[in-house]
Amino acid sequence: MVFVLCVLFLAIVIYVMEKDSRMCRFFSRRFSTIAVAILLSLSVLIGFPDRAEAVKALKSIAFDPGATAVNVATIYETAPTTQKTTMKSLKSANKALKKAAGFEGAAVLQSDDGTRLIVLSQWKDLESYQTAIATPVESSKETKTTAVAPTRTVVFELGKTQTAREGVIPAVKGKEAVVEFSEFKLKTPDDREKVVASAEKLIPAALLKQPTPQSVILMSSTDNTDVALMANWNCTADFAEGETPAEFDALDAEVASLVDVEQHLYNVVSILPAEVKKPKKETEES
Fold first, then answer.
1. CA 20 to 30 Å from 209, out of 65, 177, 199, 203?
2. What are the chain's domains?
3. Closest C-alpha to 227, from 261, 250, 204
4. 184 with 195: CB under 8 angstroms?
5. Cβ-proximal residues to 25 (8 Å cutoff; 6+ apart), any chain
6. Using CB atoms within 10 A of its CB, is residue 52 exposed (0-12), middle (13-18) or buried (19+)?
7. Is the N-terminal amide bond of 279 cis, ω within 30° of 0?
8. How many CB atoms lie under 10 A from the CB of residue 14?
9. CA distance 94 to 138
10. How far apart are CA 74 and CA 203, in angstroms?
11. How far is 207 from 229, CA to CA, in rounded Å?
12. H or E segment at 12?
């Protein structure tokens, strides 16, 4: 389409030059610059498609403190030898998520030690999520595997968030992203406030670590059994050679005994945006 418009523009310029001598003199002084600009644009769009695609916005999942979305962590415990197989088995379920009413996006996280998979999804409300999981998912014809049942599912509410740059909404972006997900499983729900307060203290320190994460997010489960901290780095290409994200600091000593901790580093395997339904064209009256 861009190519056609450029050719059309050049044709109009040549036509005007032929019809009007004054316009001919005008364009003769500027035609070279215009032509070079057009050719450079075409070289990017046609000769270098990867660079042209780079200008498109990366797929992302945002964690806006002002939003009312429900965040759900669907956790699969795996072994290094079974992680890939489990990932393949979730293909059909992930496709179904995108079509579900109320689905707003998801990130599929794969731990680098091979022991965890997390599908971190966002929903308009809890009812939308509950309706979606109640709908049966067909087995994948491509992988010929049945979807594996999750080990645990945790519904989170978004708590305190902080970003490396002020005024930016926390977001996990693209397949180059890495996530540190630390889960504090409460032994007693009554200790939730203590654990949340201690976890909040770790956020500023996490943003001072090198490499610096783009954001740190605190979430707590709706049933008061889990508190989670998540830090994200959206481009591992910026890491120095051999550099890896640092773990979160430990909770206060008096609080650490109140929880069981699961902390893993995850690679973002994919970002699943909500399916955008195109409006149906109105049929023309005969």
1. 65
2. 2-54 (no CATH), 60-272 (3.30.70.100)
3. 261
4. yes
5. none
6. middle
7. no
8. 13
9. 11
10. 24
11. 12
12. helix 2-19
For residue 26, the surrounding DSSP H or E stretch is helix 21-42
Question: What is the three-state SS of 213-228?
Answer: CCEEEEEEECCCCEEE
Residue with tokens 């992203």: 177
Q: Phi and psi (nearest 5°) for 46?
A: -105, -50
Length of the chain: 286
Judge if pTM exceeds 0.85: no
In order along its 286 residues, the chain shows pLDDT tens digits of 555 555 455 555 444 444 554 444 444 445 444 544 444 444 444 444 444 444 345 689 999 999 999 999 999 999 999 999 999 999 888 888 888 999 999 999 999 999 999 999 999 999 999 999 888 766 555 545 677 899 999 999 999 999 999 999 999 998 889 999 999 999 999 999 999 999 999 999 999 999 999 999 999 999 999 999 999 999 887 788 888 899 999 999 999 999 999 999 999 999 999 877 666 655 444 4
**d(C-alpha 211, C-alpha 176), whole Å:** 15
CA pair distance 213, 144, nearest whole angstrom = 38
Structure tokens that stand for 38 in this block: 């057009």
- DSSP states along 122-186: EESSHHHHHHHHHS--PPBTTTTBPPPPPSEEEEEEEEEEEESSTTPPPEEESTT-EEEEEEEEE
